[in-house]
Amino acid sequence: MKLGIEDISLATTSLVLDLDEVAAAQGADPDKFRIGIGQDSMSIPAPDEDVVTLGAQAAQRVLHGQDLSAIRTVLFATESGVDQSKSAGVYMHRLLGLNPNARVIEFKQACYSGTGALQLALALVARNPEQKVLVVAADIARYDAGSSGEPTQGAAAVAMLISATPDVLAIEPVSGLYTQDIMDFWRPNYRSTAIVDGRYSIKAYLDSVKQSWRDYRAQGGHELSEFDHFCYHQPFTRQAVKGHATLAREGGVDAETRDAQLEHTLDYNRVLGNSYTASLYVGLLSLLDSSPDDLTGHRIGFFSYGSGAVGELFAGVVQPGYRTRSHRTEHRAAIDGRTPIDYARYFELHERPDDVDGGDHPRERGTTGPFRFAGVRDHGRVYEPTSAGA
Ligand code: COA
Fold first, then answer.
1. What is the pLDDT of residues 246-269, one digit of tens each?
2. Is the CB of 201 under 6 A from ligand 1?
3. HEC assignment per residue over 146-194
4. Is residue 265 part of a domain?
5. Number of domains within the chain
6. Cα→Cα distances 302→212, 271, 378, Å
7. 96, 50: one domain
8. What is the number of the ligand 1 atom nearest to the C-alpha of 205?
């Protein structure tokens, strides 16, 4: 029995900031960002966008035409959670009109948790193949303004329908795993931006690539030369290039194979920025949407990394139906349709006070998406459809 991704789609925010604006504000050479870290721009949330609205927007597309009664589990992966107790997925569940006879849970382990949710979804479907699981990975990456992490912000959500009829990608059972307790990136409860030891996090990521690969091979996984493509968690696209150079050395493939395996997997992340849990799957969509070739039968490798730190390396094979499930046109429209803002407007949005005083805080309208965060009322978050979703 094949198990895997039946449908997959992404959503991003309504606003975008070109990294030349950040370079000018920081007095940095724009090439440091475009070439040095491999990023051109980053998605910025409008005041009424958050992980719930982004997740619901991405999920709406994969739910189209589905029998919602088959979806009895919803897994929401994020490290930009909106509540310490209630899952962001429960808010999303209502917005999407999902089956009340379902379980909804939020998953957290930095940028890794989308993969954790995916693997648990596969186990649930293996146990009960007529059921489908909705997995949503959604994040808004935030670092302090003026910090070295600032140009590596971004935002996106990816929704995946996991089932025993995987029209897009059949996921293979072997995984390589690696966990170590380290402080390379984290966000304490009292902060809205992450603390990161940037250089250390790069080293820890590369170490995790190596250790996850060794475990993958020890578990009976394929040789590196058997992969047509490789998708990486991308805090910035140069990290994926560094990761794959490390893997190519470990797996003994030549430079031509190495570069071909990474082709088309970086395009979306370069313009969306970091989307934490979603970023690996944004890389997959970048490949599926951008490659001119028929990818049917191609084996794709995945490296998922969440600081702190957990790594997982696994593989999937593209299925014949992947083109019929394509949302390429909508993805391009979402990316190209973002409204450019200047550094001053970004800074204003970035520095707005968090709603932490216990009062009511309505949010001004700004999203072009189908759902909005209307604000905090009586300590609760209020979400509503917009005219774009009507
Ligand atoms: N033209 C081309 N390249 C340039 C350049 C220029 N004018 N100026 C600098 N660079 C290169 C540097 O050589 C370096 O490349 P290298 O890593 O291959 O050596 C790269 O740009 C970054 O420069 P660096 O001085 O290291 O930048 P930084 O100190 O501002 O920090 C990060 C970069 C990525 C560490 C920082 O953005 C960060 O902390 N990001 C968040 C953490 C993160 O995403 N971690 C990843 C693991 S999950």
1. 999 999 999 999 999 999 999 999
2. yes
3. CCCCHHHCEEEEEEEEEECCCCCEEEEEEEEEEECCCCCEECCCCCCCC
4. yes
5. 2
6. 11, 20, 43
7. yes
8. 47
Nearest to 155 by CA among 277, 48, 20: 277
Residues 309 and 352 placed together within one structural domain of the fold = no
Would you say residue 390 lies in a domain?
A: no
Verify that 194 and 305 share a domain, yes or no. Answer: yes
d(C-alpha 161, C-alpha 138), whole Å: 15
143 annotated to bind ligand = yes
Distance in angstroms (rounded) separating the CA atoms of residues 219 and 222 = 9
Nearest CA to ligand 1 atom 9: 32
pLDDT > 90 in the chain, percent? 97
CA of 233 to the centre of ligand 1 (A): 16
**Does residue 148's CB lie within 6 angstroms of at least one atom of ligand 1?**
yes
222 lies in the same domain as 114: no
pLDDT above 90 (res 389)? no
Question: What is the domain extent for residue 78?
Answer: 4-169+326-385
The answer on 334 and 313 residing in a single domain is no
Beta carbon of 307 within 6 Å of any ligand 1 atom: yes
Q: Is 110 left (phi over 0), alpha (psi -120 to 50) or beta?
A: left
* Alpha helix stretches (DSSP H) within 219-254: 237-251
> What is the whole-number distance in angstroms between the Cα of residue 146 and the centre of ligand 1?
14
Whether 299 and 342 share a structural domain: no
Q: Strand 339-340 relative to strand 310-318: parallel, antiparallel, unpaired? A: unpaired
Residues found in the chain:
390
Question: Which residue has a Cα nearest atom 17 of ligand 1?
Answer: 36
CA–CA gap between residue 236 and residue 359 (Å, rounded): 37
Q: Does 86 lie in the same domain as 17? A: yes
- Same domain? 47 vs 164: yes
Give the DSSP H or E segment for 5: strand 4-11
- Residue 145 domain-assigned (yes or no): yes
Q: Is 99 assigned a ligand-binding role in the annotation?
A: no
Interstrand relation of 361-362 and 371-377 (parallel, antiparallel or unpaired): antiparallel
- What is the distance between the alpha carbons of residues 161 and 99, in angstroms, rounded to a whole number? 15
Q: Report pLDDT digits (tens) over 161-186.
A: 999 999 999 999 999 999 999 999 99
The predicted pLDDT at position 196 comes to: 93
- Ligand 1 atom at shortest distance from the alpha carbon of 31: 1
Ligand 1 within 6 A of CB of 149: yes
